[in-house]
Amino acid sequence: MAIDQKSLGSKSSACAATALDASTLLAQLNTEYQRFLPGLTPLLNKQDPDARWVGSADLDACISDLLATAEQQNPEAGPRYWHAYAWSTLSWQPAVLSLLAVHRLHSELPLAGLEQQQRSEGVYGYRIRSLIPPAPPQGSLIKRQAGLLQAYLEPIFARLESKAFKRRLGEGLLADRILGCLLQWQQGQDLNITELASQWLSALNLDNASRLMSIPLLQDREVLALDRKTCCQYFRCQSAEPCPTCPRIPRQRRINQLRQEWNTDV
To answer: Which domain of life is it from (predicted)?
Structure first.
């Protein structure tokens, strides 16, 4: 992650203190990002001569590149998959950063200045100007951050919609991303995941786009799982198997498969 030092400049001691706080929060955000996604650290440290930063002015070129890459790698999958791939590639990081800012730093994350790093293998890595410290009540913070996330993603939606991408598909994939990230935190965290999931989906106007379900396990245990309503379209790729939580699989069969997998891990 990179910090735009110009935006952290100040004309008074009060502004300097705010800038310092913002700088500290950005450093903490980077730490939480790498902790949440440890597998990305080697990739982020890898030199890529083709890497470039993508801001709002670069969206058209980036989307064209992603669609071309998806078509080249999976020509048989067709536009529905190519569009879903481009959307997921550009939307996952802002969603994750929003969740980390709210639930790890208890702070708002302004996404207007967010730039994502497009590399030969995909889109990961980011830089942003500042964070706004510190926290209002949790519910209010979620609602405000959801609005910032929507505002950031809307231009991506609009450009893909012009290419016949279905907004409902994008909204469902975004809802799945939000809930999937929350589920990663359910182990060892004092969080009401079900309540947080409801708050986020409501704030994003995605109340019916995805949901959680409880899976009963051995030893009187229960685990929350993603009960998806939207297919990521990956099944359209040659030799691809449906995801374990794919909504194209009958719901009871998904539950049975997840129960068997998790009981084996006990």
So the answer is: Bacteria
Handedness of CA 226, 230, 234, 240 (dihedral sign): positive
3 state DSSP class of 75: coil
Can you give the three-state secondary structure of 187-256, one letter per residue? CCCCCCHHHHHHHHHHHCCCCCCEEEEEEECCCCCEEEEEEECCCCCHHHCCCCCCCCCCCCCCHHHHHH
- 110 φ/ψ sector (left φ>0, alpha ψ -120 to 50, else beta): beta
**Sequence letter at residue 108:** E
Q: What is the pLDDT of residues 19-64, one digit of tens each?
A: 447 778 888 999 999 999 998 888 888 878 889 999 988 999 999 9
Q: How many CA atoms lie within 13 A of 177 on its CB side?
A: 23
Sign, CA dihedral 121-237-87-161, equals positive
- Does this model's pTM top 0.85? My answer is yes
